[in-house]
Design goal:
By secondary structure, the chain is α+β, with helices and mostly antiparallel strands. The protein contains 3 helices and 6 strands; from the N terminus they run αβββαββαβ. The protein has helices spanning 21-66, 111-118, 147-163, and strands spanning 72-77, 87-93, 99-105, 122-124, 131-133, 168-174. The strands form 2 sheets. Strands 4-5-3-6 form a 4-stranded antiparallel β-sheet, with helices on one face. The protein has a two-stranded antiparallel sheet with strand order 1-2. Bound molecules: zinc ion.
Length: 175
Amino acid sequence: MCCIKDCNVTPSPSSKKGYCPEHQREAKQRWLAMIKAKGAASQERKAKFADILSECLDDGQVAFDACKPTPIVVSEHDNPIDDGSPVVKQWVGMEGDCGMARVLIVPANCSFAVWCRNNGYGHTDDCGRGLWLEIAPQTHGPAVQSYERNLAWAHAVGRVLSSHGIDHRTWTHQD
Ligand SMILES: [Zn+2]
């Protein structure tokens, strides 16, 4: 007897679960529909990840460009390794202190991190703590090394990630 209640048809020999041919077909259709739905959900999630990354790039760039670093006075000393030696040249560094900032997605195996790595936007941290996001401001010249601009960029990227519930850390280094 078919495994479906009130169905008295003889099970199909190829049905492991004991469906009759008609119910076996129905079960297969349901299974296919489920697989397709899963595929669609996965596609949708991937499209959403691309949107999030694009938002990171946009907001990061806006913050980077809008940042007005505090200018610093740079002095060149007579003896480069002795700050007490006479100053031979001085100029203003409009981009302020030099430094870097990066964003680490944690953990490295969260679905967004995996998507980023598979699409060439990141590499796993050596300790396996997370994934370094490999996107950068689309800028050239001295601004690239500006600590304040890079910090503003990383914070903006972090805000986008937070707004989508993606856990991360911001790493900064001032030269
Ligand atoms: Zn049946």
